Amino acid sequence: MLLFDFPSVMITDTAFYRSNNYHTQNDKPETLDYEKMAKVVEGAYGVVME
Question: How many CB atoms lie within 10 A of CB 42?
Fold first, then answer.
């Protein structure tokens, strides 16, 4: 069922394959890799702006 008529994309890093903390009680800010997340955001921004 199509709810909205605009293109979209889902960006995932498959965290559930790489982190045992993903969506558990141990999934906390201090367990995240902010530098890597920033690179993903920069890359996605570059693609969108292209």
Answer: 10
